[in-house]
Amino acid sequence: MSNLLPKLAPLMARHEELAALMAEGGLSGDKFVKLSKEYAELEDVVELARSYKKAQEDLKAAEDLLSDPDMKDMAYEEVGTLREQIPQIEEKIKVALLPKDADDEKNAILEIRAGTGGDEAALFAGDLFKMYKGYANEQGWSMEIIEMSESDLGGYKEVIAEINGRGVFAKLKFESGVHRVQRVPATEASGRVHTSAATVAILPEAEDVDININDQDLRIDVFRSGGAGGQHVNKTDSAVRITHLPTNTVVVCQEEKSQLKNRAKAMKVLKTRLYDAERQRKDSERSANRKSQVGSGDRSERIRTYNFPQGRVTDHRINLTLYDIDEVMLGRSLNKVVDALITEDQAERMAEIGLN
Questions:
Q1: Which residues on adjacent β-strands are paired with residue 279?
Q2: Is the pLDDT of residue 255 over 60?
Q3: Which residues are CB-neighbours of 248 under 8 A, at least 6 positions away?
Q4: What does the pLDDT look like over 318-344, one tens digit per residue?
Q5: What's the domain range around 154?
Q6: Residues 6 or more apart from 64 whose CB is under 8 A from it?
Q7: Residues 193-215: what's their mean pLDDT?
Q8: What SS3 string covers 266-325?
Q9: In this structure, are 339 and 191 located in the same domain?
């Protein structure tokens, strides 16, 4: 067992200092908010530090009692329990000490696009959307479609959705990349296995304070929406296309009846894409020093294969294979992959800052 108390002592002292400063009063509103935020950010790790310190003190006391014939049996049991608990607390502390990703608690924009494979790729894109929708339900999140383009045989050429809930981006940020499927398409008469792909992008939803867009940098076009079956959207100029001229980023939204609602949704996606582009630029600079592929952010990389004939899902970054494809595609077992990716990323970051 390592001793983390030297690393924790300054944090515990700062936590007490903040409590005293806030108790004194006389602080401006902004100053109080700033101190309160710092205090709250330290709360979890300080609580763990107190538990860790007490467990170590209890362990020493129990070990001292091992030489007492009357207390030996009880002390031996206590020592065993504490020696098991302390490493578990240490691991929680190490995770709590990792630098926080400022975007982890944000909602996310999910973008899925059919890749190579024609109609089968579009069907697979639809299956991926159902998988993430099922996972969102399991997590207690809500999902709303912002834009979708259906293919002739079903599925999606493209689907964009907003996922709202606690810690959405933290859970889903490692899902970005190329997802590959191997299966026999419904249209394949000979029963031959085909390989096709779809790309997934998970973007942290930008807030107004994150990014500022000048009106003169935008071109906004409205047009009559297109849809199958003579939907109401065909009858009014409710669809909105927003182009960010400096970056040539284009966002289209036509899911709502209201032009204003479509414009608001399109602006949300535009801000998110521009914010994410800057985030990707910074991540690329940092990732050059990282050994792990989990957090590399390379969205052109093939990250996962879904092999239906063999009933397996393989994540290539961490060499994880699950023979549980039906439950994964329903979203019910996706947590096994998500949690493994998070654990691997945490271990890599611990090694980087000497916490392993």
A1: none
A2: yes
A3: none
A4: 999 999 999 999 999 999 999 999 999
A5: 108-209+296-351
A6: none
A7: 88
A8: HHHHHHHHHHHHHHHHHHHHHHCCCCCCCCCCCCCCEEEEEECCCCEEEECCCCEEECCH
A9: yes
- Between β-strands 108-114 and 156-164, what pairing exists: parallel, antiparallel or unpaired? antiparallel
Backbone angles phi, psi at 175, to 5 degrees: -85, -10
Percent share of the chain, pLDDT over 70: 90
For the segment 219-232, what is each residue's pLDDT rounded down to a tens digit?
Answer: 999 988 765 433 44
Q: Residue 169 is encoded by which pair of tokens?
A: 């981006």
Q: Which residue has the tokens 């996922």?
A: 163
Handedness of CA 323, 324, 325, 329 (dihedral sign): negative
Q: Which two tokens stand for residue 63?
A: 């070990």
- The residue with tokens 């689907």 is 159
Same domain, 118 and 203: yes
Query: Is residue 284 in some structural domain?
Result: no
Give the chain's domain count: 3
- Contact predicate 114/155, CB 8 Å: yes
The one-letter amino acid at 131 = M
pTM of the model: 0.77
120 and 65 together in one domain: no
Average pLDDT along the chain: 87
Q: Name residue 205's amino acid.
A: E
List all residues 6 or more positions away from 52 whose beta carbon is below 8 Å from its beta carbon: 4, 5, 8, 86, 89, 90, 93
Residue 314 has pLDDT above 60, yes or no: yes
Q: Where are the alpha helices (DSSP H) in the chain?
A: 5-24, 29-64, 72-97, 118-139, 168-172, 259-287, 325-329, 334-352
pLDDT band at 303 (very low <50, low <70, confident <90, very high): very high
- Regarding whether 245 and 190 lie in a shared domain, the answer is no
